[in-house]
Write a structure and sequence with these properties.
With 175 residues, the chain is mainly beta. It is 8% helix and 29% strand.
Length: 175
């Protein structure tokens, strides 16, 4: 298993545990997830972070119990789909992000969309620059879908798919 952390900073020598910038409401007993941690994502879910840092996006994929008709309707032949607002497309085409590979030792699996955390300092194994983010999805089996607004996709949370919304507070008309 490979773990990664994505950043716009090309010069991180050591990842230090830090609290999340904007705390989330966590289930009872999981409040510690807002505390000082180093976060990583597994290789199967790295497409969640192939975006400029503040880019709002919605990502979907089938769960084992997703009905085949719903999977075909939303995903077709793709493994997943990533929705992004049209005005972010130029940044996806021009910005570079950095994928740091992390040693898996010491990370705890959150059993939540490929996320892992560690409470100690981590020295990355290597760093790779990724440009033309818009072209990085298809090789991973993910269709990039450009939309005018993410707001009409709110109903996806009622579907039988896994739905991840990231940085939605930055979407133009989310609230």
């Amino acid at each position: 298993m490979r773990l990664f952390h994505f950043s716009d900073d090309p010069d991180i020598a050591v990842f230090e545990p830090r609290p999340v910038r904007i705390p989330s409401i966590r289930p009872a007993g999981r409040e510690w997830l807002n505390g000082p941690l180093v976060w990583a994502i597994d290789g199967d879910h790295d497409f969640l972070y192939l975006f400029p840092r503040d880019c709002p996006r919605i990502l979907i994929w089938a769960k084992p119990e997703t009905p085949e008709t719903e999977r075909r309707r939303w995903l077709g032949d793709w493994q997943a789909a990533a929705f992004v607002e049209r005005h972010w497309l130029e940044r996806l085409e021009t910005e570079t992000i950095h994928r740091y590979e992390m040693p898996a030792d010491g990370f705890e699996n959150l059993d939540d969309a490929g996320m892992w955390v560690c409470g100690r300092s981590i020295i990355p194994i290597e760093r790779a620059a990724i440009s033309r983010l818009d072209l990085a999805f298809a090789p991973r089996g993910v269709e990039l879908r450009v939309v005018d607004s993410l707001r009409p996709l709110k109903s996806l949370w009622n579907a039988g798919l896994h739905v991840s919304g990231i940085r939605l507070r930055n979407a133009r008309d989310w609230e």
